[in-house]
Design brief:
By secondary structure, the chain is α+β, with helices and mostly antiparallel strands. The chain is built from six helices and 13 strands. It has helices spanning about 10-15, 20-30, 175-180, 200-210, 260-270, 275-290, and strands at about 1-5, 35-40, 45-60, 65-70, 80-85, 95-105, 120, 125, 130, 135, 185-190, 235, 305-309. Helix 1 (about 10-15) packs across helix 4 (about 200-210). It is globular, with a radius of gyration of 23 Å.
Length: about 300
């Protein structure tokens, strides 16, 4: 038996009419033979969290490590929030951050320690004598970490401006939605006779059948040119019992960069840390098709040859 994980959002990409709760999905999939061992809601204990914009930053009158911010949360007057985040300074004016409003809830503390079962409720109060009406958030306080959000700082609040994918983010919109955290990660127990369920497409096909919905797999189109990969690299399989087939393609004109945000979020929701476009693409195909992949730098490949022992 092997354990397999999928994010509900990834399943819905190929079963677009699927509309079920996490528990309904768990029960029905288990009854039809795709045993769900458990699930975790990525937005657990995240309540009333919006995208805010820092309008001003002033020093706290009685605390050197605290600042007082006026924050636009998209409705009514700006709210005043006191923070000790090291990456909020006078230069932070105009930055967009996740803001939990008075009465809202976050998953945990900024130190990234164990998450309390019921999260932490945020209430209006005073910090060293100055009123604070909410809290600006780090990814740790949202129950995530820098493995899921590599663009997050080592310390301090998550700044949407640091990622160009959030350039059009609307003030007051759902910050949890923007970060892709309205999602569920399911863990399955897959028996060795169901290798088709080692990938997201196999699980999605089962979900479509289970719930009577249309299965819409991705369309794979032929790519490439008239050149032969064998003119650039060769593959030798020495153990044909353990590895019957190993194929290679050569891709030119590569530019290392972050992968698209939708790909980063799907990988992160599946528990895989986004790294860059090349690594993420190979991991994405592996997760989706259950087909392991690896990318090599051709210039660094000894003898321009891959030997499978």
């Amino acid at each position: 038996r092997t354990n397999m994980n999928t994010a509900l959002s990834w399943i819905k990409a190929y079963v677009p009419d699927l509309d079920v709760t996490a528990q309904e999905y768990t029960d029905a999939m288990t009854l039809t033979g795709t045993k769900v061992e458990g699930y975790s809601c990525l937005d657990k204990n995240l309540e009333n969290i919006v995208v805010g914009e820092v309008l001003s930053v002033e020093r706290h009158p009685d605390a050197d490590k605290l600042v007082v911010c006026q924050v636009n949360v998209g409705a009514g007057e700006p709210v005043q929030i006191v923070t000790g985040a090291p990456n909020i300074t006078e230069a932070s004016v105009g930055e967009k951050v996740p803001v939990v409003l008075d009465g809202g809830r976050v998953a945990g503390g900024h130190d990234g320690g164990a998450l309390p079962e019921d999260g932490i409720k945020i209430k209006k109060g005073k910090l060293r004598g100055v009123e604070s009406c909410g809290m600006m958030c780090s990814v740790e306080e949202l129950g995530a970490d820098r493995d899921m959000y590599p663009d997050a700082p080592e310390e301090g609040l998550y700044i949407f401006n640091n990622n160009p994918a959030y350039a059009d983010l609307k003030i007051g919109s759902d910050a949890v939605e923007a970060l892709g955290l309205h999602d569920v990660n399911f863990e399955y127990e897959v028996t060795s006779n169901r290798v088709d369920c080692f990938g997201v497409l196999g699980i999605a096909r089962e979900a479509a059948a289970t719930f009577g919905k249309e299965f819409v797999p991705p369309v794979v189109k032929k790519t490439g040119n008239n050149e032969k990969a064998s003119d650039y690299v060769s593959v030798e399989i020495q153990d044909t019992t353990l590895c019957r087939r190993y194929v290679g393609r050569v891709v030119k004109n590569i530019k290392i960069a972050p992968s698209p945000m939708w790909m980063q979020r799907r990988l992160a929701a599946n528990g895989i840390r986004p790294i860059n476009n090349i690594v993420d693409i190979t991991n994405y195909v592996m997760e989706e098709y259950a087909q392991p992949m690896h990318a090599y730098d051709l210039d660094r490949l000894a003898g321009k040859k891959i030997i499978v022992r």
